[in-house]
Amino acid sequence: MSGGTNTLEQLLRRFQNEILFGAVMLDKLTWDGFELTHACPVAPRSWLLRAKPPQHIQEGFGLAPELLFIAVQGEIQARDLHRAADEVVRSGLRLDGNLVIVTDDGHTYDGGRPLKDRLERIPGRDQRVAWVWGEDRFWPPLSEVLRQQLPTYDVFEERDAVRGHQLMGRDAEVMELRTRVLRGDAVGVFGLRKSGKTSLVRAVTDALDPASGIMDPDAEHVASQACVIWIDAQGLDQAEVDDVADEMLAALRRRMRTAGDSYEPPAKQGIGGLKAASQAILDARRRLCFVIDEYDFLFEREGNLGPVPGISRLLRQVRALSQQQQGAVSLVLIGRDPEHVSVPQLDGVPNPLLAGLTPMWLGPIRPPHDTEMLRTLGRRVGLAVGPETATLARAWTGGHPLLHRQFGSALREEVRLHAPRSLAKEPTDPHREGAVERFLGRQAVLDVDREIIALLSKRYPDAYTLLLDLVESPDPATAVKRSGGPQGSGARMLRNFGLLDEATLALPKHLSWYVRTLLPTQTRVAV
Ligand SMILES: Nc1ncnc2c1ncn2[C@@H]1O[C@H](COP(=O)(O)OP(=O)(O)OP(=O)(O)O)[C@@H](O)[C@H]1O
Ligand SMILES: [Mg+2]
């Protein structure tokens, strides 16, 4: 958020003049130790503010360095919340992607309903904390409201890609991917379902080109020198290659509009249009990054249709651009594995990516970051995650991000059952075993396991055989040796997917549990 030439002080003065309750709100924040950092009018009588919480609140609740506020005179609308989501993208990693504090005065008008009720009716999965004065016209301190409201929301239960400060434990991966993108590499980000691939790549592209990740085309413009063209191949499965190129052109046009960029991609469509547009961007000495999320769908179309016809033309074009403008063009493919881009021929011609794609395998969140994630999210919901709990969680989930969060969610459920209304931080160690039971009952756990089994048994028989052997065998080292050793294809693939602990050769317990209890015996011996 920039206020043009206005200083923060001027903006805050304007805020207090325009919004009836603005002065009270700012007073309350200051009283609580918050430091205002940004203020921006986003529509008539609608403002976004950002403030740094005092350290004890930030750490006590595991919050991002800044909190986001929406203040509306009248009634808050869905679009105010969309603007807030876009602000998260704009802020780099300074805001939580799943938390916003909302204030309006809709409830003070005749027939106005409480803000909390109205917020519940606006779709979306993030936590909206309603902060308003009560019936007695007393406005409670925000710290108190947070203490009451934050624990009521299950922050662990999240299935979509995470944004902003919610990306945890991936600093090294973000740095590596960023370096590769800036170097103009073609990178494949591979990993199991829900291992955090989209979240990782978004963290890099949000920083490089926020406009590529902002949804509201009328948002305040954010310019950048890099152009990220992001498409999701899921849903394009009936497409021809020109449709894929058109999708990219549409993404580019959206990005240009959001950036307030005067550049208009040429009207020409298809591969030809994409070529002309790319050339024009590069001629303006700008960087270009293509991202294809769920790239597998371009190669496995529904009904066993095989690759999108002509897909090699598109890949070849990206490669040609990147060779011609060394370092200025990068490509990021996101998917489960490099299977489709490692075939020698595509469309009957040599595969343009065969030698040029650097694989980046995204495994689990490594210690101690897995524990930090559990602790940070735990603080937000009023849990003091203990060391025994952290060790147990690691053993069961192997650090897989979605599963680790699911463990936290199961833990929260278990603790709340035993200590329902405690407002102090509740120690989790006494409840850890109960959490395992709940964790194993989660549909998300079964889904991830089923997909791991399907993937390995279909595409990686050596890894599958080794997996089954490891589940049965008391001595993992011998099982690995039997499969061809640590460098054999079975062990290598399990390691790529982050399923085999480097040091102990242990499998995550959710997976051995799944194979032992839920995988039919005939499937187990079928390979
Ligand atoms: N770095 C992270 N920190 C915290 N949570 C994460 C992180 N990465 C992933 N998650 C959790 O995992 C879930 C899946 O993340 P994401 O959608 O990025 O994975 P993906 O590999 O792209 O999944 P898919 O297979 O559906 O494409 C998120 O909803 C979030 O709960
Ligand atoms: Mg994804």
Commentary on this structure:
By secondary structure, the protein is α/β, with parallel strands linked by helices. The protein has four domains: 8-152, Trna Endonuclease, Chain: A, domain 1, CATH 3.40.1350; 171-361, P-loop containing nucleotide triphosphate hydrolases (Rossmann fold, 3-Layer(aba) Sandwich); 369-441; 444-525, no CATH class. Helix content is 45%, strand content 13%. It has helices at 8-18, 22-31, 55-60, 78-90, 115-121, 142-149, 171-183, 197-208, 241-258, 270-283, 311-324, 369-380, 387-397, 401-418, 432-440, 443-459, 461-472, 476-482, 489-496, 509-518, 521-525; strands at 35-43, 46-52, 67-72, 99-104, 127-130, 186-190, 226-232, 287-293, 329-335, 345-346, 349-350, 357-361, 383-384, 426-427. Strand 3 (67-72), helix 4 (78-90) and strand 4 (99-104) form a beta-alpha-beta unit. Helix 10 packs parallel to helix 11, helix 13 crosses helix 14 (401-418) and helix 17 (461-472) crosses helix 19. The model has no long low-confidence stretch (mean pLDDT 92). The structure holds adenosine-5'-triphosphate and magnesium ion. Adenosine-5'-triphosphate (ATP) binds at residues 158-162, 166-170, 191, 193-199, 373, 401-402, 405. GO terms for molecular function: ATP hydrolysis activity. This is ORC1/DEAH AAA+ ATPase domain-containing protein. Residues 189-336 form the ORC1/DEAH AAA+ ATPase domain.
